[in-house]
Write a structure and sequence with these properties.
Blueprint: E1 3-8, H1 19-26, E2 30-35, H2 43-48, E3 57-62, H3 69-88, E4 93-97, H4 107-111, E5 119-123, H5 128-135, E6 147-151, H6 156-165, E7 168-172, H7 178-187, E8 195-198, E9 206-208, H8 211-215, E10 223-228
Parallel strand pairs: 1-4, 1-5, 2-3, 2-4, 6-7
Antiparallel strand pairs: 7-10, 8-9, 8-10
Pathway: Cofactor biosynthesis; adenosylcobalamin biosynthesis
Domain Tetrapyrrole methylase: 3-204
Family: Belongs to the precorrin methyltransferase family.
Amino acid sequence: MARFYGIGVGPGDPELLTIKAARILESIDVLLLPESQKGNNNIAYEIAAEHINPEAKLISVEFPMVTDTEIINKSGKLAAEVVERYVREGKNTAFITLGDPSVYSTYNYIVKHLSADIEIETVPGITSFCAAAARVNRSLAEGDEILSIIPATSTKRLMEMALDVTHSVVFMKVYNQKDKVLKLLEEYEMEDSSVLVKRCGFEDCSVHYDLKEALSGDKQYLSIVLSRKES
């Protein structure tokens, strides 16, 4: 039987696509492309485009940008049905995702709906927060420090629980959550040690050390805040 691949294409820079990901994409038969809204340009595709088999069948699967898990699970189930159909026809099928497939990726909503006999291979990619740390030449964690990856869409209480025990933090999904993030950083006296990186890995990547000013500007979905408690 053919195989289903979940491939992380990295944060944005095509040169950060792994050799393994490129090799698999060059021979893939069917490629599923995630879309948040019909008609949008697919960022993951643009990153990996030069390595994708030109004969591969491209299929867009919609994953709405919502917090309702029922809706997301439904999208995952529909995508899984597409995957199973092509894999059972003997076609190697892949789904590409920004960053790494194991970190807040819609890929996992596909995997959980696949039949047990479908062979799956997950190909890791460089995460946006690792790329952001590299961009500003910053360590994410040292020694026995605890690093927390916090989605800014989480509840304030859960975020506080993480901040109570962590030394270094990555805030993801900052889009539309700026007030909550700024308030927490002020409460934990971490604002001065924070940096905002927008569109890391892309040519128009920008770095901001004045979070209040940067977050009050144009909203950018691909934004990450790196922060740490000063010793």
